[in-house]
Amino acid sequence: MDQVRIGIVGIANMGMQHARYIVNGEVEGARLTAVCATKQSTIDAAKQELPAGIAGFTDYDAFLHSGLIDAVMIVTPHYSHPELTIKAFEAGLHVLVEKPAGVYTKQVYPMNEAAEKSGKVYSIMYQERANPVFIKLHEMIKNGKLGRIHRVIWIETTSYRSDCYYTSAPWRGTYATDGGGVLLNQAIHSLDTWQWLFGMPQTVQAFCEFGKYHPIEVEDEAVAYLRYADGAIGTFIASTGDAPGTKRIEITCDSGKVIVEGRKLTFYRLEMPEPEYNKTNTEPFGSPKSVVTTVEYPERKGFSHPDVTQNFVDAILYGAENKWDGCDGINSLELANAMVLSSWEQNRTITLPIDADRYYELLEEKIDQAK
What's the 3-state SS for the chain? Predict the structure, then answer.
């Protein structure tokens, strides 16, 4: 195989964005050969923009078994991701699924099992990991440059939404069709990057506000406290009601402090690591000195979705490392579910992994109450 024939299911807004960069040749070794949607009118609209010769299907099973595709890109509503992914693996196809993996972890476990059983490449679209500043931060953490991490404070409030965003489509902001709010939609990328950088915490306690800024059922603000087995702690804040918003990460560690704000990475590096200074200092009011450095990293434009798709194709064609392993998608969902579950249950502390059955039970109750 010298090319991967890709089929996209869900060819509306986001699906068309993926289709455009593939047909524009931005992913080497990839060719768009088919699209699938529930409505013929959606297929017809897509074909007006796409090159001739791309097949269109309204039947997903026919699409999967058409013989025209080697891999499926799933760009459909959240609830449908697990079912469509499992069917694609059963058809012997590789899968790249849009975020999130699903709405609740109970439906994602069988999805991951199907992926492992299939032997096919399975990736998930968490393109924030391709951000050069996060790549550099990840490198600093994994290389031990920061030492032990003490505390992380992450503010993600740049995804402001007004009421008209939610009223523009009837499925938005509901448990039955959207599945969740700011944590599942806007901040899920940050939760994925969090677990990629720092791993998974031991416990989560959260305070979510439901419909605080908008006439919606789901959360539009969340403040969470995360605790790790080694004693590290974290605070995560997300909202769709802040204007102007903030995107800022502050990491306190043995080696000092790191701040990421926008594309700027600043390292307040201690001349002597704090644990060593703490044990050897003889001045009652002394504190370690630090040197402030703006960390340089290879800057580039255009990082985003094509990076993930390129890695997906390279993993299929050449056996390249799958940097966006789809099975990891359950981690960010676990964090989002834990934060919501804590809030539903009087802000109690949740031990991970969460009780997946309990979360699903309460979600079903929320859906029934909204009818």
Answer: CCCEEEEEECCCHHHHHHHHHHHCCCCCCEEEEEEECCCHHHHHHHHHHCCCCCEEECCHHHHHCCCCCCEEEECCCHHHHHHHHHHHHHCCCEEEEECCCCCCHHHHHHHHHHHHHHCCCEEEECHHHHCHHHHHHHHHHHCCCCCCEEEEEEEECCCCCCHHHHHCCCCCCCCCCCCCCCCCCCCHHHHHHHHHHHCCCCEEEEEEEECCCCCCCCEEEEEEEEECCCCCEEEEEEECCCCCCCEEEEEEECCEEEEEECCEEEEEEECCCHHHHHHHCCCCCCCCCEEEEECCCCCCCCCCHHHHHHHHHHHHHHCCCCCCEHHHHHHHHHHHHHHHHHHHCCCCCEECCCCHHHHHHHHHHHHHHHC
- The CATH code of domain 4-126+303-325 reads 3.40.50.720
Q: What is the pLDDT along the chain (371 residues), one digit of tens a residue?
A: 899 999 999 999 899 999 999 999 999 999 999 999 999 999 999 999 999 999 999 999 999 999 999 999 999 999 999 999 999 999 999 999 999 999 999 999 999 999 999 999 999 999 999 999 999 999 999 999 999 999 999 999 999 999 999 999 889 999 999 999 999 999 999 999 999 999 999 999 999 999 999 999 999 999 999 999 999 999 999 999 999 999 999 999 999 999 999 899 999 999 999 999 999 999 999 999 999 999 999 887 766 899 999 999 999 999 999 999 999 999 999 999 999 999 999 999 999 999 999 999 999 999 999 88
Residue range 129-300+332-370 forms a domain whose CATH class is: alpha beta
Q: Residue ranges per domain, the chain?
A: 4-126+303-325, 129-300+332-370
Whole-prediction pTM: 0.96
